[in-house]
TrEMBL record:
Coiled coil: none annotated. Its main location: nucleus. InterPro entries: Aminopeptidase_N-like_N_sf, ARM-type_fold, Ig-like_TAF2, Peptidase_M1_dom, Peptidase_M4/M1_CTD_sf, TAF2, TPR_TAF2_C. GO terms for biological process: RNA polymerase II preinitiation complex assembly. This is Transcription initiation factor TFIID subunit 2. Residues 646-1003 form the Transcription initiation factor TFIID subunit 2 TPR repeats domain. Belongs to the TAF2 family. Residues 1193-1212 have a biased composition (Basic residues). Residues 1117-1265 are annotated as: Disordered. PANTHER family: TRANSCRIPTION INITIATION FACTOR TFIID (PTHR15137), TRANSCRIPTION INITIATION FACTOR TFIID SUBUNIT 2 (PTHR15137:SF9). Residues 1213-1242 have a biased composition (Basic and acidic residues).
Amino acid sequence: MKKEKTADNVRPFKLVHQILSLTGISFERKSIIGFVELTIVPVKETLKIIRLNCRQCRIYRVILNDSYEATFHYFDPFLDICQDNKTKSLEVFSKCHLEMAKKTDPDNNAGELVIVVPEQATHLIGEGRGLRIGIEFSLEDPSGGVHFVIPEGEGTMEERAAHMFTYGHENSSRLWFPCVDSYAEPCTWKLEFTVDKNMTAVSCGELVEVVMTPDLRRKTYHYTVSVPVSAPNIALAVGPFEIYVDPHMHEVTHFCLPQLMPLLKNTVRYMHEAFEFYEEALTQRYPFTCYKQVFVDEIDNDCNAYATMTILSTHLLHSIAIIDQTFVARKVMSKAIAEQFFGCFITMQNWSDAWLARGIAEYMCGLYSKKCFGNNAYRAWIRDELAEVVKYEEKFGGIILDCSQAPALPAVSSINQSPAAPAKAYNDNPFYFPIKNIHTISPKYVEIMRKKAHLVIRMLEHRIGQELLLQVFNKQLALASNAASTKISSGLWHQLHISTNIFTKAIFTVTGKDMAVFIDQWVRTGGHARFTMTSVFNRKRNTIELEIRQDAVNQKGVRKYVGPLLIQLQELDGTFKHTLQIENIVVKSDITCHSKSRRNKKKKIPLCTGEEVDMDLSPMDESPVLWIRLDPEMTLLRSVHIEQPDFQWQFQLRHERDVTAQLDSIAALERYASPATRLALTDTIENEQIFYEVRCKAALCLTKVANSMVTSWQGPPAMLTIFKKFFGSFSAPHIIRQNNFTNFQHYFLQKTIPVAMAGLRTAHGICPPEVIRFLLDLFKYNDNTKNHYSDNYYRAALIEALGNSITPVVSMVHQGMALTSENLSADSKLVLEEVTRILNLEKHLPSYKYTVSIACLKVIRKLQKCGHLPTNPKIYRSYAEYGQYIDVRVAAMECLVDYVKIDGRWEDLENLIDLLETDPDPMARHRLGRLLIENLPFDKGNRHRLDREELALRIWNNMNGLLSHDTRLRCDMVDLYYTLYGTRVPNCLPNPELASILKPQKLASSFAAVANRERTDSERERDQLAEIELESMSQKRQRSLSPLDVKPLDLIDIGPTELLIPSIRSREGSPMGVGEEEIRDEIILETVDSNIKTEIVEMVDRQSDLKEEIVDLDDQNSITMVSTEPPPVKKSKTDFYSDNSISLPGITPSSSSVTGPTGFEPGMFGSSSKSSETVVPAVASEPSVSSKSDGSKKKKKKDKKKHKHKHKHKHNKDKDRDREKDREKSKEKKDPSIVRLIKEDTQETLSSADSSSRDSNPTTLDLTL
């Protein structure tokens, strides 16, 4: 096969061999000292510059052929992506991001390390002659690429299980050694690692020997990789690992951390079956000579596959008593083995070909999962994958798997049947990030792209057949195996790569079918099809009139489909399939029925599986069609909406044997709340022949149907009878039997039904009391003593059920009163006590992966959100700290993100951003980033108290340069920036373009005129009287107050609308000069807590008769009076406890004299605003600055207080009176001045001030209630 001309050919040399030697791996300093030697063969004799990839390494020396030192240059463009930081928009950033990525892309003959061949060494350069490049380097406290895990405690590194491993987002080997970091540049390797004698170094290839150093304190591991592999597929793990050789395959070795060997043996006991399955399916032996699995802690993914080895998360390990984790672990490990064939052995030629290697590996993993877990689980998984792809594409845009080449132009446009548009119309990038480089793409995009690639490979299977598709894979593996056994001089190493064009030619060679049209349609074009189908029965002609519409072709991510579409009709006489040719947006077709209506005759109905079943046909109309399915085999990337009566969905649920059809029926029946639907769902739950996932979905659907039928529901709560029937004792059904999870279907049903029942609601919108009593009885009678399996997931499900039973509080408590146990309902008290008891018990008897603790944290957050507990993030912060188990941390972070969105202050959001930037665990940082993206602190485009310039700048600085060594987190930051601010400059940041358009001076005067016209005459009279009184009071005060206490200000800043509001004293003209207008682009309102509190204390201390009028920014109509009494101290809640509770995890005992219940610190659920209320006296005692240079600052601060509290007194009255006389005439010509600003006059403008004032003025609003 002729090799394609790609960017790989641009590189002026070929890499033949590489030596990697790391001699100084220090856990104490988190540093590495090493040496690499690359053997290259120049393609041209004019080679003057050699570009390699290397990032965050310190290069000491570069030497050619051990004789000639070469000069070198290093640059990392990701340290400052947008060098012009004036315009902080994603439109600008995306262009710079792609440009910088290209500058270091090895497939573009680029790199961070540029080596200049010296003049005296030019004779070494010759076409076909080898050249050795030696590089000495070190790595100190790396920010990415290498992760050191050093647990706290006493003892040596070995005793503390300290270990390190390499990781990275895609091709990131450059982060820990100089290389050609491209999948398209394979070579053979020699690897040497010197570690402490009690440590083990695990790397790629065969272990040749282990040699002790002369001082007998360290040893060196020597590995060789004889099969050419690329640098991104090289990895290393060092630690005090325990070693387990697989008893079924001696070539396979497993490594785990100390004391985890029993879990390791159970987890990997069936792994040899995956090897056997892949070798048999592909009719090709495993391409390497050995395979190693290393389980480590704090890895960024569950699994990272490399040549001959895989680094996995230690959290995958489980005992034989764990059910749920078994499915996850087995699937992850089987996928890693599949990636050894496609991904490590056969690699992508360019980034645009990544879909092939990943899609094939995912496809092979799916085939093994079908064999391992059954066809029902496989089809349900395919349905879920398809739904995820559709959801993402409709939200962000169509995913183009291969963007390197535009699809061939169709003869007619696929959108409106007009002449075909240029190729660009089919290949435009609809995303806010560039898709042509892996280091600029959203991690979510990469995840969904892998799923779509898998579905496209599966579509190929339906078009050419599974057997022929596996032959295509076999051909590629055979060619690659032959090439791997030769030297580079043979010119066959290109067969170790795969590309879209190579794959298309291989399909044609094996099958004789040209799939170019398919590739253009589904690989080089993004989007999916979207069908809506309706049907009408024509009794006279005995036909079904179908109408299939594609109305959404112009929506994001949706494209028009042209081609065959399979329709499956289930009639009274059997199942009949029809293929329609879809050419237009609306397709109508009449399909003749094979049966005639026989509603009154009972007859066995033949199904597609060949079996015959009895059906009750009484609900049917005159149509002989029982149900209709569209594309039942999921051979297209599509979403389907079928409109048919409820009885047809019920028939489909009861009698269709396909899992996907049953799940579709359940999703549709949510809209049809009727006794017949209730009966169909109940029968489905009880039917032992139905797949357990369908039964669980039916239980959750029955909850929604029952809630819709709450007024007509008869009998006990839904599913209560079913649960007692399956799991109740024979003599006393209300008492649950001892746990026995040997029947896995019953186990999953036993977990799901309580969660579904907890969602039931009465006509008043609350959970029925008998359901809550039932749930609490499940805890009471839960007995797992004779069960072979752990009940941790079951107990976690019961706690989740308690959380689902919670409804928002309906209380008559007066506003401002603290929440106490007396205010709680009896059911809420019971729920809280049970959750507290279990959470405390978890400290002493932790469950597997702390699943129960995670469920408890989420229920506590639900209690807070529904008003049963005061909102307080303290408990979640303690659980989110580094050192806790990762799943617990993520759950606590989820609660914190939710708290920030609803109740949080700036300090709470700042705490999350600090965690996102500085947390040592890369997985925790990534998960927190995704949580913030999925549950934003505030909505885009709306002014909010958390929408500050500081937040936008922090996110921008991280993605612009601070995360140069963490591609995935940098792209997470880009996603967060987009979801918060869109592609343009955030509103909270200065916008030079907008500033040049708007004139602040004119806006201010017009704003003042509008506000003044809207005020009533009575208000003006009252203001004038108040001014006279305040002027007399200010004269008296001037005699007693020092000049330093007077801080007048003429301007009030109210945010990015660029409106300047004159204060009481600035009656005439614009308060800003022309020069200031040009300098200041945007004015942002910041409510200063200390100023407000200082002024309040001043008024309290003086005890004068002065009446201060306050405009409450949280109340548009009321004008309240400042009380001279301090705010009441809220009473700590002391009644939330259980009899045997103890301290909550992560909460230290309080030294307060207030005694609280066992298991809680007094006030731990208290209002987060209490602390700010007690700060007032301290702020008042701050010394004032007396320097003259600070006069302008004092002016601004004082007048901000005036604007906030609307003081009507004046300072320096005599001077002001003279000015008033002098300017009396000029004032008449200008707009009337603003004496006082009422919020209802400027409701839209002051929306940001409204939200921000909640943080700064705790005396006017209690955030906790």
